[in-house]
Amino acid sequence: MRNLMDKICTNEDIYMIPRSIILSILLFIFGNTISVAQTNNEIFSKLLGVEVQTDKNIIAQLLKTDPGKKIFVDSDNDGKNDILYMIDTDKRHEDKFKPIFVKIVDEDGDMYLTGEGDLDSDLHIADWHADGTVDRIIDYVDLDNDNDQDEQIQYFWSDSTVTSYYRRVWYSPDQPKVYPGKNYFVCWALDISDDNRLWWHINYDYVQTLSQWNSDYNGDETHVNKFFYDYREDKILPFGEIKFSFYDLDNDKYSEAAVRFGGKALTVDNLRYSYDIDNDAGGTNVHDYDFSITCLGPIAIPREKSFRVKIRNHTTEPVVQWEHMREVAKSGKWKKAHLTWDENDNNIADPVLCRRDSVCNERWEGVLNHQSEFIKRVGGPSCGFYNKRNEIDMDYSGEMQFYYSPVDQRLHLYGAEVGWIKVDYNYDHRIDMFIWMEDTDKDGFFDTWKYDVNGDCLGNEHDTLRYNSIWKYEVEGDELYERVVHIENDDMQIIPFDYWILHDHYVSSLSRVTYTNQIIINRIKKLLRNYEKNFEIDSVEDYFYSSLVYYRKDYHIGEKIKNSNEGTRYYQDIIRERYWQRLTETDFVQNSNYKEIADSYNEGNFKKTSGLLKTKSESKNEEGKIL
Fold first, then answer.
1. Mean pLDDT, rounded, of the chain
2. Residue 275's CB: how many other CB atoms inside 10 A?
3. Strand-pair partners of 156
């Protein structure tokens, strides 16, 4: 700016204009970038009040004393201490931020009883490096006077020059504004079900890779991550995860639904709506989401479904109410939808795609979709390439409804034009089978299934970071698919996107399919032993029974998959298809009833198929040879 002013002031056409007038013009033009610098302490004081101010003399005093010393202050002279100063020596905090000076303001009058701060109605102000500058603030609020936290509010700053050091994303495209230097943010969480746990912190900060598995995202809860604090306008505006809500639908303390809105203000740019549809979360497995629908907008949140969060002396711009969020999500006129179904019951971050977070925990956020040619990823890390069923409704014609297809005996996203599964049964990041689904007559229901049983349709390069094109089949044609099923009458009953209705459909079908799958597998194997000269157990079946339990044994991941109904059904489907393909490559196809058997198999009528196979496997020809 100095160079610009010098150029203007030496221009022959305007050299007579007083410098004060020129400066006024520049201030008018660049008003948003020229201001008297404000410190963290001043901005946080404007947002929260003078309580956040610290005392440099006390900081100096504490730094000279033994670690762990506490200084108490009776600020209102009522004979009871209500402020605590200390250097926090908790080992959870990282050395790069130490010493961390902390001021705790008691706001419910019980500090004199405990001699320390607590997590119900106290304000925690943290100063990294004890240099007199406030860096992080956590406000714990007890809304119902039961002496536990019901609300938690985090305040933090971020600087574009130290993003990697402080591990906060200082800018994103949906951020309302960007001020030069530091920007200031607020995160808010509400514990609706009153289980008294919300975010867990390190360095008085929420750092996802370090904090998330000690935080609580269960029961009925909601949060906004985050608000942008426009300190010049003195406004608090939601952006990013403008609402993330969890719903405990059966009051068992575990959430069955997780709903996330991404966007800014009252505009939702994307949605992720996840269900634990078989309701099997519990014990040490505190999250077990089975599928999600990811939608792209934008849509608008109706103002009558919104409210403003009260944050001390400020009131935020509107956000959607927890009570209305699912309704708004379901009624929204979205542009596109992506169903991601966790077929192998292993909803963890892909260990290759997510090296920064290798802990094998089921994701608390729901099932995070993986990007494809059809849709971008929403949030991260995704659940990965493999063993997930993907279905895309490219024009949102199905409006988040489902149907059950007898062909593959699965719930599908009504309106989806295409779908696919990339099978990696032994987790070596190679495609072992590829299944393609398509609605060729555009009536909202899949009518075509194509099975690349040996996984060569997409190639088998060991390149996990490359997005293999799922359209390659159009170039190669159908010759690489070992089985192609097309049905003419594909009308199915539409099932609403309702948790308990879908739950009942899914649980009942899962039990039925696992039973019939095993019967048909056993009967095909019995036939193969007679038609193949050197019969061998299928490698997938051998892996499932012998080796799967050793996959990520340190976290019992393989054991969990093998012992789950969903994991068992998924492996059965693969094993059954591979044995069926082997059977079609034998002389069994010359059997006079082969067409009837194949037709019933293609229709998904496995009960009839297994009955026909049983008849043929147990009947004998004139020579006594088992057919």
1. 87
2. 25
3. 136, 185
Nearest residue to 248 (alpha-carbon basis) of 295, 287, 198: 287
Dihedral angle sign, alpha carbons of residues 390, 395, 397, 400:
positive
pLDDT of residue 209: 84
CB atoms within 10 A of CB 265: 17
Q: Is 330 helix (H, G, I), strand (E, B) or coil?
A: helix
73 dihedral zone (left: phi>0; alpha: psi -120 to 50; beta):
beta
Model pLDDT, residue 180? 84
Structure tokens at 420: 């696919």
Question: Which residues make beta-bridge pairs with 104?
Answer: 84, 124
| Cα within 13 Å of Cα(501), Cβ side | 11
How far, in Å, CA of 156 to CA of 166, rounded? 11
pTM, two decimal places: 0.90
DSSP string for residues in 471-504: THHHHHTTTT-SEEEE-S-----EE-S-HHHHHH
Sign (positive or negative) of CA dihedral 499, 416, 328, 343:
positive
Lowest-confidence range among 219-233, 321-335, 350-364? 350-364
On the question of pLDDT at 394 being above 70, the answer is: yes
Using CA atoms, how far residue 381 sits from 38, 358, 370, 373, 492, in Å, is 36, 11, 9, 18, 34
How far apart are the C-alpha atoms of 119 and 390, rounded to whole Å? 42
> How far is Cα 269 from Cα 375, in angstroms, rounded to an integer?
13
Residues with Cβ within 8 Å of residue 164, at least 6 apart in sequence: none
Number of residues that this document lists for the chain: 627
Burial track 447-477 (b if 16+ CB lie within 10 A, e otherwise): bbbbbbbebebbeeeeebeeebebeebeeee
Peptide bond into 298 cis (omega under 30): yes
pLDDT, position 29: 40
Please name the residue that has the structure tokens 């072992």: 432
Distance CA 496, CA 481 (A): 33
- The C-alpha atoms of residue 446 and residue 178 are separated, in whole angstroms, by 46
pLDDT tier at 358, thresholds 50, 70, 90: low
Give residue-wise pLDDT tens across range 261-296.
999 999 999 999 999 999 999 998 899 999 999 999
Tell me the sheet residues that pair with 420: 390, 436
